[in-house]
Fold this sequence. Notes:
- The complex is a heterodimer.
- Chain A is α+β, with helices and mostly antiparallel strands.
- Chain A folds into two domains: 4-228, Rossmann fold; 239-350, CATH 2.40.50.140.
- Helix content of chain A is 24%, strand content 36%.
- In chain A, strands 6-7-8-3-9-10 form a six-stranded mixed beta sheet, sandwiched between helices.
- In chain A, helix 2 crosses helix 3 (107-120), helix 2 packs parallel to helix 4 and helix 3 (107-120) packs across helix 4 (136-148).
- The mean pLDDT of chain A is 88.
- By secondary structure, chain B is mostly helical.
- Chain B has a single domain, classed as MetI-like (MetI-like fold).
- Chain B is globular.
- The model of chain B is unreliable at 259-263 (pLDDT under 50).
- Classes of the chains: A alpha+beta, B mainly alpha.
- The interface between A and B is medium-sized, with 26 and 19 residues.
Amino acid sequence: MAEVTVHGVSRFFxxxxxxxxxxxxxxxxxxxxxxxxxxxxxxxxLRMIAGFDFPDAGAIAIGGEDVAALPVQRRRIGMVFQxxxxxxxxxxxxxxxxxxxxxxxARKETRDRVEKAVDLVQLxxxxxxxxxxxxxxxxxxxxxxxxxxxxxxxxxxxxxLSALDKSLRVGMQIELKRIQxxxxxxxxxxTHDQEEALTMSDRIGILRDGRLEQEGPPAEIYDNPASEFAxxxxxxxxxxxxxxxxxxxxxxxxxxxxxxxxxxxxTRAACAVRxxxxxxxxxxxxxxxxxxxxxxxxxxxxxxxxxxITYLLNWQGETLKAFAQNTGTTPFDExxxxxxxxxxxxxxxxx
Amino acid sequence: MRLFPRFLNGxxxxxxxxxxxFLYLPIFxxxxxxxxxxxxxxxxxxxxxxxxxxxxxxSQLIAATWNSVTIALTxxxxxxxLGTAASLALYRYRFRGKKLLQALLFPPIAIPWLITGxxxxxxxxxxxxxxxxxxxxxxxVALALPYVIVVVSARxxxxxxxxxxxxRSLGASQWQVTRRVTLPWIAPGVIAGALFxxxxxxxxxxxxxxxxxxxxxxxxxxxxxxxxxxxxxxxNAVSTIIIVLSMTLMLLTARYFRFGGEK
Lengths: 351, 263
């Protein structure tokens, strides 16, 4: 086990900066989610930690040791690829044993360690199969067992769940997390799926255009997004723009929204409100208590999803979003004029 | 619905039958005549193994056969090794002039052997390599190399580069990656390439003819010389032996490797 530190790393492809001055500490034994849209540089960063690519500037250290001069095969990493990259000419057993066999581990020890890894990923009895005889979920487990059987210092996961279908994916998320906890290995996980990043990671780093946008524990980032990008990429958010006056943002139509913290005065700024924090009341309903923001809006679309209902609303020609739990009350009709209420505490100022 | 496919089926079978007949009838007749005691192709066949005994005494033809076999096997070994290595390099690395190099691999396949042979003869004389078995070997390797590279590269196109990355991430050295992951995948291509190399060398007449010295030559050149002097059915006998050997080799290879597909 080891911590991984990335310090001031940049990588250019021609004149295009794939990564620019990125510094992240990946804590020892932690599960770190690198989240970003495609082209944000998250895979480039992972490949540089693995040693498949090298930074043009900055340094990468694994377990305190600078790895600039270490080729992939000497970095003691385990990696799970997007398409698993199982060796098609080898059985499941030989795939998992590969990393031990190239290191010259004795046959008996190999068998014991492979068996342990197979038990850990719950794949017993499939050792003789070939990769093409396995289901997607089973291949995923083989790839994981193969990556951890060598007891690497760090486990790198490159969108390992993206090839699985939805129901299998949720199951594997829980599995992956369980296995990571049991082994206690430092894990870096690349994904573009915000839900996956939220549910699995201890820490999340959001990358955008090769820069680290924001970093922290999932709940902290979700509740305190620093920018509009962070607010909309990690979860849903309604964004309101206006002019700042202390804690208040004056919107174009004259409405005042109170934020939970002050913003630099006089500037144009924005605030974000999560859709699940918004309460919808019929306009005729009782007026809410103080410390609330409110806006009149019209419901344009109601999307029923079983346990919840998503409302799309029209306010001043802009589309807003609000989630409501399906608590059994009569849902609002499309076209209804309503008032939206939310707490000042839920109004997040963005820089 | 039934009539059309059936008509096609009949025509198709006839077509296949004709192709096979054109391919195999001459060979079949040659094999038959190698067992005919009459040197003038008289029928009915007077069964005899006499030409094979005569062949056993024809030291010139036997020497030429051994030359051909040795050169073909050596060519196969060298061209397959170099060609596979070159294909891997072209697959793995980017370097200056790579596109040009790849483009230049194809023309030698299209240039008539007569021209390549003349060019080699002139060049070998100019640089002092001269003629002889060593010159034939050199020429054959040069002829076979593009075939191996083209066939192995085609197979490598189906290889997923993540497999090599996965192997390296698991601690494998470059050599271990190649031997245990890449080579097993491209093996059918390497075998096919080797067969091409063998065929190019073993069938080679033109280039061998230019580069051989009178005493030391290969089988095709020797057969040609023998026919010019006057045809003897010993040629049928030696041809029959070679047909049997090469067909066995091909069938065995086809049995173990489905070309283009997985093992």
